[in-house]
Structures are given as C-alpha cells and as structure tokens.
Design brief:
alpha+beta; 3 domains; 29 strands
C-alpha cells in the first residue's frame, strides 16, 4: 500500500512540475501582438557586430553592399547578411522572464551563444544576447540592450543570428561577372588544354579542336563556377603549396570577361575534400571533390553532339544527295483561312507533294542523329558519303553534314568542325529507310468495286 501511495505522490509531483514548466514557457496566444525587440528597418542598419562560434565579425554597408571588416577585410555574403538582418529586425519577445535579473549566468547570458549589436541611420543602436534554451527547448533566454531584463525568444532565431565569420563572408570559389564571361580555359595535368569562346550566345570549342560547343554544358559549368562555395578555409599561408597539391595543380580553370580574368587552381583530394585556391586571394580553401572532378571532363563532353542543328519543326528546306542523285524537300506555306503548310519533293526535275507523315518521320530521324563519341578523323572508307545533307532552318540559317560508313560503323562530319563523330549505325540505317519511304510514290487509293459490277459477275 505504501508503494502505491509513493507512486501516486511521484506522479503528482511530476504533473505539478510539468504544469509549472508549461505555464512558465508557454507562449502568448497567436492573436495577441508580441513586443518587438527592435523598431528599426533592416535597410537602415549600417554596421553589425556579431560574436558567435568563437568569432567576432564586424560588417559595414557602403553603397548598398556589405563588406566584412573583421577578423579579415573581404567581401561579405550578401544573402547571409540579408537573412541575419531580417531575423534581427523582426525579432519578437515571447514573454518576459525577469525585468532585472540579479544573475545572468543562470540563463547562460554571461557567456552568450551570440552577441549581436548594430548601428543604424541616425545613430540608432541596438544589441541582443542569446543564452541557454528553456527546459522545454521551445525558447531561448535573451537580453535586449545592455541591461538585465531577461526575456524569451524563439529558438529558431539562433540559426540566423549565431553566425561565424566564415558563414558571413563571401564564400564563392571564384569571383567573376557571370553574364560577361566570354572565354574559358581548362588545363588538366597530362592533358591538352580545352578552351571555349563565346560570340553573342553561341559557344565554340576552340581547342583541342575547333567545333561547336554544347551551350548547356558550358553554361552549366559557368553556373557551377559562380555558385560553388568553399566548404572551409584551410590556411592563409601560401609558403607550402605542395602540401595541398597546388604547386602543380590537378586542374586550372581561367574565366575571361573581356580584358579581365579569374583563375581557379585545384590540387589534391583527400578525406572527402579537395584543396583549391583563387589566385587573386591569399588562401587555400576546400571544396566538394565532386566539383574538382567536374574540371577533369574530356573536351568531348563540351562539344555539341547533334550532327544537325535543325529540328523537325524548324526546317524549311532539305537537300539530300545520295551518290549522283539529289532530292530536295521544301516546305510550302499554306494560304487562306485555316492554312496548313505542306512539303514538296523535287527530284529529276519533277515536283510533287510529300506525304506529311513520312516527311515528319524523315525530319525527326535526321535531326535526332547524335554522336556516341568523337574521333580525330573518320576511317578512309567513310570518306565517301552515303548521304550528304544541306538544310535551311530558322528562316535564315543553313548547315551541311555528311554521313559515311566503314564496315559496321557510321560517322558524321561537318565542314565547320574538325574531326568526325561516330554515330549509332542503327539510327543512320533508320534515317536512310525513312528517306526511301519519303521518296516512294504514294500508293493509289483502293476503292471497292461498284455494286452493279459485283452483281454482273455473279
């Protein structure tokens, strides 16, 4: 019986303690407006000092942009600062705990997790310190200003306010004007350099061969270069670059924008990180090794793999030469109401309408021919084309390409590119078959015999 009473007593004590914690830490109803810690607009803040995670970081705004002054002078991460300021200037008090605490250490506020102060326009100043979490973990103890009034704020603010110097600095691995980049050069140890140049919106590979560039692949590389961030700073001492494999980098990438350039060198990869440095900054930092591997791609990865640039919907005229014969397919614009375009076939001086379904199939199979790989030159037998194609498309563009065969292999060449591309033979054969079908004369329509003729036969 005594054991039962003891158990009941413990349950009662636990319930009382739970109720106490609930009422102490409970938030006000959502309908009741909360007191804001600061009454300043984020855009009016001009200087910030953040002490957290063992760092004291000082930031200042000039001409609308933030720079980091301490512990090192460098560019700041504008997005991180915006997030910090948003959380700081919208910070709300859940409730007051003690209007004038005698001992701040009870709340973890003598050595706070974060101590943030700022100066805004007109000399307005503000400060907040974040201490320990409450017993339920739903809030943090905090002190606004330099006094001893302890309040509660949401624990979620710690993520944006307790920021280290590294988190607040600009962590881009390479600084360049993304939209103005017009040339790239990648040098990997033991390989011929790969270079690209841009004219208007078109990229070309200029080394090791002169060929069309894959717009998506090259632009994707530029995007990764402009958005990839350091994972950490290894050292600011450049006296022993060999230690990081940066005396003879595994790869070096140069981005050019007009007369300016930026260079990134990548060294060795160990323990899930790769060492790298921007040659314009005195530091060695680490990056994701997958990013380092990206720079070791073969030149062929950046070449356009389509033999032809036209698409079935954009082609306006196709001339196909096979042996001594040339056939021309031409799109004719429809006229009048509900006009429908049609294709014609001209061969041997005779022009007739093409069957639309067969024409669509031919255009699709030609425009979908893509390289499996690139070779320096096609084998000798493939030098004699089985097909030569000249296409007009997109109103004013023209292109030419040839297809040859060597045994079971097929190859495509273009006069504006060096080397050759190996094509899937099955796709080439399918394109030739589609050409034969398009050229075949239309089958005469079959008609049922007249009823009278059938009766007479009976």
């Amino acid at each position: 019986m005594k054991g039962a009473w003891s158990t009941l007593a413990l349950v009662a004590v636990a319930a009382g303690l739970g109720a106490y914690i609930y009422f102490v830490d409970a938030k006000r109803p959502d309908t009741e407006p909360r007191e804001k810690v600061f009454s300043v607009a984020a855009d009016d803040v001009e200087e910030i000092r953040v002490t957290a995670k063992g760092d004291t970081t000082v930031l200042r705004k000039a001409d609308g942009a933030w720079t980091l002054l301490e512990p090192v002078a460098t560019e700041a991460d504008q997005n991180e600062i915006t997030s910090l300021l948003s959380s700081l200037t919208s910070l709300e008090i859940t409730r007051e705990v003690d209007p004038n605490a005698a001992n701040l250490s009870e709340y973890g506020l003598t050595t706070p997790k974060a101590d943030i102060s700022f100066t805004a326009k007109g000399g307005v100043k503000g400060r907040v310190r974040l201490g320990d979490a409450t017993p339920t973990g739903g809030d943090l103890y905090a002190v606004a200003g330099d006094g001893a009034r302890v309040v509660l704020v949401g624990t979620f603010v710690e993520t944006n306010l307790a920021r280290s110097a590294f988190e607040l600095r600009d962590k881009r691995v390479l600084r360049f004007e993304r939209d103005k980049a017009d040339a790239l050069e990648i040098t990997a140890a033991g390989r011929v350099p790969v270079t690209f140049t841009r004219t208007n919106s078109d990229w070309r590979v200029t080394a090791p061969v002169n060929a069309r560039g894959d717009y998506g692949a090259i632009e994707g590389l530029l995007t990764r270069l402009s958005t990839t961030m350091m994972s950490g700073i290894e050292t600011t001492d450049l006296s022993d670059l060999k230690k990081y494999g940066l005396d003879n980098p595994a790869s070096t990438l140069v981005v050019k924008a007009g007369s300016s350039s930026a260079t990134l060198a990548v060294g060795t990869s160990v323990e899930g990180k790769a060492y790298a440095r921007d040659l314009a900054r005195p530091m060695v930092f680490t990056v994701d090794p997958a990013f380092a591997t990206e720079l070791l791609k073969d030149a062929g990865e950046y070449r356009r793999k389509d033999l032809f640039e036209f698409k079935a919907f954009s082609a306006t005229e196709i001339a196909v030469t096979r042996g001594a014969d040339t056939v021309t397919f031409k799109k004719v614009k429809g006229t009048g109401d509900n006009a429908v375009d049609k294709w014609t076939i001209t061969t041997g001086g005779t022009t007739r309408d093409a069957e639309q379904a067969k024409m669509d199939d031919l255009l699709a199979k030609l425009s979908n021919l893509r390289a499996d790989r690139f070779v320096a030159a096609a084998p000798a037998p493939a030098a004699t084309p089985v097909l030569k194609v000249k296409a007009s498309f997109d109103e004013s563009k023209t292109e030419e390409g040839a297809i040859g065969k060597a045994g079971a292999d097929s190859f495509g060449t273009r006069p504006d590119e060096a080397g050759a591309m190996q094509l899937p033979t099955a796709d080439v054969d399918a394109a030739i078959a589609a050409l034969d079908l398009a050229l075949a004369p239309p089958q005469p329509a079959t008609t049922a015999p007249a009823q009278g003729a059938a009766e007479k036969k009976e």
